[in-house]
Amino acid sequence: MNQINQVAIVGGSHGNELIGVYLVKKFQKYPDLIKRTGYKTVSLLGNPQAINAGRRYIDRDLNRCFTGTNLPDGETSIYEEIRAREIQTILQPQGQASVDVIIDLHTTTANMGLCIILGNMHPILLNLAAHLSTINPLVKVYIHEQPRNSGFLRSLSELGFAIEVGAVAQGILDAELFQHTEQIIYAALDYLEQFNQGKINENINTLTLYKSISTVDYPRDENGEIQAMIHPQLQFRDYQPLHPGNPLFLTFDDQEILYEGESTVYPIFINEAAYYEKGIAMYFSQKQVIDI
Ligand SMILES: [Zn+2]
């Protein structure tokens, strides 16, 4: 790809993640903020019904509905599947050019800072992420490799990525994180503008990234009931090394459960509220420094 023609900014795919919701409302009120000369930028709210209800979703997690299998055929009464089709029609209209870049805005109750989530290692994405890392020390880069149409909105586009910011509670606006996120979006838009103009002359040679290895569920009994909490020494320690023997969970009767893996890992999304129902207490990642 040598020219970006269309960029989409989506907020509120999860209705209780308010920073993205209100950023998109701001961009729709003041479209000049995201207007750049070299390409067209659109902004849209992902899940309007969930936003109105103040919930993550109505029937199903919208950000798992972009699978290709339920798109574009077949009947469904599930609101998020219908909405996923509508969004795909907006971003990828039949017979017309698709959006080249999707920026999907999320918040998390985990201490993720300003996390750029990439679904693939496209060189444009890696260089953009490296550039954004220079803007704000809170920026971290997480690679969760997913094929196209893997369910995530960002997977609709080769150059799709998410900005996942936290820690912030669901249903809460945090002004400082709002401003940080806004600056990252403008920096990304400016970068894409410079890319189109062939003006990228940074010499960033390496990028630190966290690559997804596995998920870890809470200890549960045979009925699925949670038996332990995130250990207090691990809470909010996203991106910090977890060594074999370090505490992972604490049971309700004060027993420590230790990490028994053989190598050091870097937990992220620790204690994300929305992941309890998904059976995820945290992700384990590997920290890598790569040449770009
Ligand atoms: Zn989200």
From TrEMBL:
Identify the InterPro entries for this entry.
AspA/AstE_fam (IPR050178), Aspartoacylase (IPR016708), AstE_AspA_cat (IPR055438), Aste_AspA_hybrid_dom (IPR007036)
Q: Which domain of life is it from?
A: Bacteria
- What's the EC number here? 3.5.1.15
What's the protein name?
Probable aspartoacylase
Q: Does the keyword Metal-binding apply?
A: yes
* Residues where Zn(2+) binds: 14, 17, 106
| Organism of derivation | Okeanomitos corallinicola TIOX110
Question: Among its keywords, does the record have Metal-binding?
Answer: yes
Task: Outline the extent of the AstE/AspA barrel-sandwich hybrid domain.
Answer: 206-286
Binding annotation for substrate: 56, 63-64, 164, 275
Which Pfam family, an example, fits this chain? AstE_AspA_hybrid
Q: Which cofactor does it need?
A: Zn(2+)
CDD domains attached to this UniProt entry = M14_ASPA
